[in-house]
Every structure is written in structure tokens, then in C-alpha cells.
Amino acid sequence: VGSMFRNIAVLTVLLTMLILVATSCDDTPQQNRSVISVTSINENVSPLLSDVIFNDGTGISYVPDYAEVIMENRPYSEMIITAPGHPYGEFQVTSYKVEWTRTDGGSPALPEYTSDMNMVIPSGKINASSVLIVTVNNKTNPPLDALAGTANTITMNAKITFYGHEVGVDRETEIIANLGVLFGDVVNDDGP
């Protein structure tokens, strides 16, 4: 009888360990090893001021608008310790999408667009990159082209969704940030 109870106890311990190992290897989105966050976009200055036409007195030009984004890769748990380059340690941002919403009650908003990106954020670290917010095409088409030569302004919110994954894992993760943008035709000091 004693050996039967010992065998049942050993079997119970083995089954419990197997269940723990099986659940700890679960690769579901709810169990990411990293928490990725945007800690700053455009140096936390909002709105981003976008001059639709640049006139320096020698001619008119259209200049795209970029903003610096700073992202942090924080381990989900203090128990997770990984070296840079080790699977599940680094996070790679592969692309981003910008979606526009008018905040001034007007219509239409700018069309959304997606761009490739390659930024690696080591575990426990931050990294910065420049992202394109307003394209030249945005500035030369409605509704922004109507602002040229006027004192009118348009305000929009740019919802920026970053896509990426932990190194060694194909599961895509989304990180969302928002940035207000004020569009207008700024009078340049060097121009007319």
C-alpha cells in the first residue's frame, strides 16, 4: 500500500510539472515577454506644426514632416532576464501606419498610409527613430492644398500604429500613439 501511494504521489508531481511546463511555453499574445511603449513622440509636443508650403523667397517647396519617436522595451516581469540578441530579449519594429481624423469638425481627413521601419529595441532599453508623419503628397492634395496663401488652418489627429515582434517570435504586436497636427501656411521670415 505504501509503494502505491508513493507511485501516485510521484505521478501527481510529474503531471503537475508537465502542466506547468506546457503552460509556461504557451505563446499567446497575452503572454508577451516584453512590454513595448511609446515614451515620447515629437518630444511630447503636440500639436506638430505643419507648414503646407515653404517659401524662402527663392521659390516654393513642399517639405515632408517627420517626428522623433522614442520607444521602450520593458520586460513583462522582473523575473525575466535576457541578454541583447537573445530570443525574446529584443523587440523589432517593422512598420507603422498613420491614420487621420479631423479634430476641427471639417472634412475630409488625409488618407492613411503605411511605411516600413526597422528599429530594434534591446530588452530593458529605449531607442529612437524618425518617422514620416505628413507626406509631400498630403500637402499637394485636398484638403491641405487649399491652405496655400491663406491664414486658414486645419487640425487633425494622427493615430500612429507601430507593428513589430519580439526577436525569435513571429507573433505581431501593435503599439499605438497619437499626435495632434496643426496645418497652415506659415509666413516664412525669408520669403514674401
Features:
single chain, 192 residues, mainly beta, 5-stranded mixed sheet, 44% strand, elongated
Descriptive overview:
The chain is mostly beta strands and 192 residues long. The chain is built from two helices and ten strands. The strands form three sheets. Strands 2-10-9-6-7 form a five-stranded mixed β-sheet, with no helix packed on it. The radius of gyration is 25 Å and the shape is elongated.
The SS-based structural class is mainly beta
* Biggest sheet architecture: 5 strands, mixed
- Which of globular, elongated, flat, extended, rod-shaped describes the shape? elongated
Strand line-up of the largest beta sheet: 2-10-9-6-7
Count of helical segments?
Answer: 2
Q: Percentage of helical residues?
A: 10-25%
**How would you state the average pLDDT, rounded?**
81
DSSP strand tally: 10
